């Protein structure tokens, strides 16, 4: 099994970025924790962060060639804007979970709209860094 974890724009700043909203855990800590869990479970895990829409789209397309069978993605602000990244998921037909650190439904109204949720296997929003862990647990047991 190969799980790809994709992090969208500004998530490289986690830990320093609006800690009241996003928490104090850094992206390195999140990825390190996921890598440990994946190693324990004996699966392959690749993590990738980009601030560029095109790079995220390329990684989704590349996932098929790389033999990825499940994606965990926090599209960050592209959640609310990117039809192009959404279309990449529709094209590759890989199962994915949409994760948000914050509860996007308890914030500004523009964050309540996601271009991904209807295509996602499921959505985890508001559980902080724990959300990634829960998503990986699901990915381990599903196909
Ligand atoms: C986010 C929520 C988005 O609205 C925001 O643009 C982000 C992070 C989250 O993880 O809570 O960058 O996806």
TrEMBL record:
InterPro entries: DHquinase_II, DHquinase_II_CS, DHquinase_II_sf
Gene3D superfamilies attached to this UniProt entry: Dehydroquinase, class II (3.40.50.9100)
UniProt entry tagged with the keyword Amino-acid biosynthesis: yes
Binding site for substrate: 74, 80, 87, 101-102, 111
Pathway: Metabolic intermediate biosynthesis; chorismate biosynthesis; chorismate from D-erythrose 4-phosphate and phosphoenolpyruvate: step 3/7
Top-level class of the enzyme under EC nomenclature: lyase
Keywords: Amino-acid biosynthesis, Aromatic amino acid biosynthesis, Lyase
Reactions the enzyme catalyzes: 3-dehydroquinate = 3-dehydroshikimate + H2O
Enzyme nomenclature, EC number: 4.2.1.10
One Pfam family hit: DHquinase_II
Single GO MF descriptor: 3-dehydroquinate dehydratase activity
Membrane-spanning parts: none
GO BP annotation list: amino acid biosynthetic process; aromatic amino acid family biosynthetic process; chorismate biosynthetic process; quinate catabolic process
Active-site positions on this chain: 22, 100
Top-level taxon in the UniProt lineage: Bacteria
The keyword Cell wall biogenesis/degradation belongs to this UniProt entry's keyword annotation: no
Site note Transition state stabilizer, residues: 17
Reported function: Catalyzes a trans-dehydration via an enolate intermediate.
Subunit structure: Homododecamer.
Record-stated family: Belongs to the type-II 3-dehydroquinase family.
Name of this chain's protein: 3-dehydroquinate dehydratase
Gene: aroQ
């Amino acid at each position: 099994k190969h799980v790809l974890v994709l992090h969208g724009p500004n998530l490289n700043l986690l830990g320093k970025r609006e800690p009241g909203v996003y928490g104090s855990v850094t992206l390195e800590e999140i990825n390190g924790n996921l890598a440990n869990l994946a190693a324990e479970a004996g699966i392959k895990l690749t993590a990738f962060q980009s601030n560029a829409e095109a790079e995220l789209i390329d990684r989704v397309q590349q996932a098929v060639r790389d033999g990825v069978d499940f994606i965990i993605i926090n599209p960050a602000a592209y959640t609310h804007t990117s039809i192009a990244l959404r279309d990449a998921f529709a094209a590759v037909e890989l199962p994915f979970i949409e994760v948000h650190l914050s509860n996007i439904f308890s914030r500004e109204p523009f964050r309540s709209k996601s271009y991904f949720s209807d295509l996602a296997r499921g959505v985890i929003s508001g559980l902080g860094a724990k959300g990634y862990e829960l998503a990986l647990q699901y990915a381990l047991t599903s196909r």
